[in-house]
Design brief:
By secondary structure, the chain is α/β, with parallel strands linked by helices. The protein is built from four helices and four strands. Pfam families: adh_short (PF00106).
Length: 131
């Protein structure tokens, strides 16, 4: 088995992303979401980090800054269970971006409810209308 220290970066011919690739990660202030934001940022993607708790989201941004990974990461406070928060996020996103390429929703890993499921559907369909 190959260790992560010897793993090679993708070659130019297999690299499908660029700095213009936009990834949105919900629930990204800790855990898997935060790890994905770090990885995407290291690869040079433009990343939108969202968190329900603004102070925790800002702490995550500060951690990225310490690592030198904050230059292509933007933060928005998003409560995926609140349709008004989703609408505000979509308005904010549309004002700064043309489209997105990746949407990673990690909140369902922590909160299982019909409300959260419906909020994800609302977010997804709002963006479908956006494209």
């Amino acid at each position: 088995m190959e260790s992560s220290t010897t793993r090679q970066q993708p070659s130019i011919s297999t690299k499908w992303w660029s700095k213009d690739t936009v990834a949105i990660v919900t629930g990204a202030n800790k855990g898997i979401g935060y790890a994905l934001v770090k990885r995407f940022a290291k690869l040079g993607l433009t990343v939108v980090l969202t968190a329900r708790d603004e102070s925790k989201g800002l702490e995550a941004m500060e951690s990225l800054k310490v690592l030198g990974l904050d230059h292509n990461v933007r933060f928005f406070q998003l409560d995926i269970s609140d349709p008004i928060s989703i609408s505000s996020f979509v308005t904010w996103f549309r004002s700064g971006f043309d489209s997105f390429d990746i949407l990673v929703s990690t909140l369902h890993l922590y909160i299982q409810s019909a409300c959260i499921h419906l909020a994800h559907i609302l977010l997804y369909h709002t963006f479908l209308l956006f494209k």
